[in-house]
Amino acid sequence: MTDTWQTIFDEYLIHQHDFDTEPFFITAKEIKKATNNLEPRILCKQDTRESRPQIFQENNLFILPVKNGKYAIVRGEGYVDIPPVDDKQEKHKSLLDYRLDTAHVGNSEMQYLDFAYATSLIRSVMDDDSLVLTIRGRKYTPPFSFKVGNQWLETRSVQTEVDAGYEGRSQVVLVEAKNSRTTNTIIRQLFYPYRQWTEHTDKPISSIFFEKNNDEYNIWHFVFDNPDDYNSIRLLKSGKYIITGVES
What is the mean pLDDT of residues 172-190? Predict the structure, then answer.
């Protein structure tokens, strides 16, 4: 992918662009034209700092979708750290009084997340026994604008995916789930769904990064201090849990 993006930069003279003034916008059609029809969605999937092509890393760049088939290459910090959970492991006793046989078949992040919800771990961590599953899957964002670094972007109809979203009496919780150790992630995966659902509810929205690691369930609770600022993300708390009970 590194050589491919070098070709794209050469084709459109992106090296000469002043990223301190504004992002560089590029379309899926332009990417295909420069790469002999390689898939733009794959080339633009840069979910961690390390997965960025070398030319992005060297110039402190990252890429964001701004509409279906259009992207912005931005200079600045596009990622947030997912730090190790240093707190002592906590035990969560399932509120179920029976074993979930089907929950132990497979190893997908969705399965682990559903198990954590079924045993009431998610409700316990969020201190909200009213949370119910109301959001899942892919949707397109409404139009919204936001600040990234010292620049503003406008987006519309960007496809987002939420692994699970829960609504309670007084809050909404959105979850991005992984089943492997992650040290950082692109803020977009948390920010775009957050902004999307602020358009539909006045309830406070929390963003959860969820990870299953062996028998441990690791949870990071993020908030955005300013809904208009991509970089206003803040880690509120984190924890690691073992689920115990007859179902485990």
Answer: 95
Beta bridge partners of 72: 25, 64
* Cβ contacts of 202 within 8 Å, gap of 6 or more: none
Q: Which two tokens stand for residue 220?
A: 């990071």
The sign of the dihedral angle between the CA atoms of 122, 107, 162, 134 is negative
Of 78, 59, 48, the closest CA to residue 19 belongs to 59
Whole-angstrom distance between the N-terminal and C-terminal Cα of the chain?
42
Q: Pick left, alpha or beta for residue 13 (phi over 0 → left; psi -120 to 50 → alpha; otherwise beta).
A: left
CA atoms within 13 A on the CB side of 219: 27
Read off the amino acid at residue 8.
I
Residue 129 has which token pair?
Answer: 């026994």
**Distance of alpha carbon 50 from alpha carbon 95, whole angstroms:** 40
The whole-angstrom separation of Cα 193 and Cα 104 is 29
SS (H, E, C) 100-155: CHHHHCCCCHHHHHHHHHHCCHHHHHCCCCCCEEEEEEEEECCCEEEEECCEEEEE
- Cα–Cα–Cα angle for 28, 34, 35, rounded to 5 degrees: 85
Tokens representing residue 219 in the block: 């949870």
Whether residue 247 has pLDDT greater than 60:
no
Q: What is the pLDDT of residue 28?
A: 97
Q: What is the largest CA-CA distance in the chain?
A: 64
Is the C-alpha dihedral spanning 74, 177, 131, 126 positive or negative? negative
**What's the whole-model pTM score?**
0.94
